[in-house]
Structures are given as C-alpha cells and as structure tokens.
C-alpha cells in the first residue's frame, strides 16, 4: 500500500545554499523509481537569515564584502566557488542586485501553499530563486512577487490581491518564523523527511547522493 511522505524544506529565498539544496533534492527525487511505494510532497517552511534587513535593500556585492568576505580575494574565492557549484546544478549565479528583507516573499509562499497547494508554492519558490540569484532582481518587491505568482499559474487579479494586501498570509508566516526559532533552527537549508518509522533531518546543502540515500531509507522503512 502506498505511503505519502512529507519533506519539510526550511529556506530563505536569499540563501544560495538553499537554492543549491532545492536543485539537488529535485534531482534526487527524480532518481526514485516510478514504482516507488512512497510519494513525496515538499512543503516549504520560512526562515529569515537577516530579519533586520530593510525592505528597500542594499547592494548585494557590497553587503557580502562588508559582512562576510571583507577582502577582494575572499570575495573572488566565494564567487568562483558558488559559480562552480551553481553550474553543476544548472544555476547561473550572479552577484549583483540587492540584499533585502524577505518577509513578504515568505508570505506569498506560505499563503499560496495553504490555499493553492504545494505544486503552486514550488513554482513560486523556483521563480523567486531564479529572479534573485540569476537575474539580480529585488527578492521581495511587488514586481518580483507578482511575476512569481503569475509564473506559478495564479491569475493576475488574485496575484495582485495577495501581493498588495500585506496582511494576507502574514500571521501564518510569522507563526512559521516563530516555529523555526522554537525548533532551534539557526541556519538553512534544513530538510526533514518524515517517514513512517522515523524522520530524517539533513542540515546544510547536501549532495544529490546524500539526498538519494535518505529518500531510499524512508522508502525502505515505509514498506
């Protein structure tokens, strides 16, 4: 008899490691045989790496140099490394644009996940990642959120209502952020695969092989 398993994926839409993890997890899921008795559904959980960031934002490259990689050499090593990691997963990382508050990006994800379903939320997440990391767009401007919603199949009128009314989905998003704090999440990505016998938790961006191994354990223990 089939078993439906949930994968809780805690992310921030401006964290490059969560983008890598999502791509690698997608690849791992695609490698499961069609005859697998377990169906996996990914649900996204919110986390803010920089909740103090402004909505207007600041220059991403300058922010990284100020807060993470102070020397030109360190910054170059970071961009070279992330570019290589990204290329392996089909991601064309760029390093311009703005670092800004992601609350309303999470609000859009959480609201559509609860009202339109996980498939729509997944498409929203894909669009937000691509816009931010590959097109250097603002991570949570109304323009970015509108595009993400519409690329996920949400009608323009419904998308505009959610994006412009900043109270829609706000409470559930804040509850999710508090839950992350209560669960002592202090970094992302955090992937929890819920199995019939036990859950498997993976922190940080793992390799495709590591995700495949974990998925296969859930399948084996669910039969």
From TrEMBL:
A GO term, aspect molecular function: oxidoreductase activity
Organism domain of life: Eukaryota
A Pfam family that the UniProt record links to this protein: DSBA
Domain DSBA-like thioredoxin span(s) in chain numbering: 6-215
InterPro entries found in the cross-reference section: DSBA-like_thioredoxin_dom, Thioredoxin-like_sf
Protein's name according to its UniProt entry: DSBA-like thioredoxin domain-containing protein
Organism: Saxophila tyrrhenica
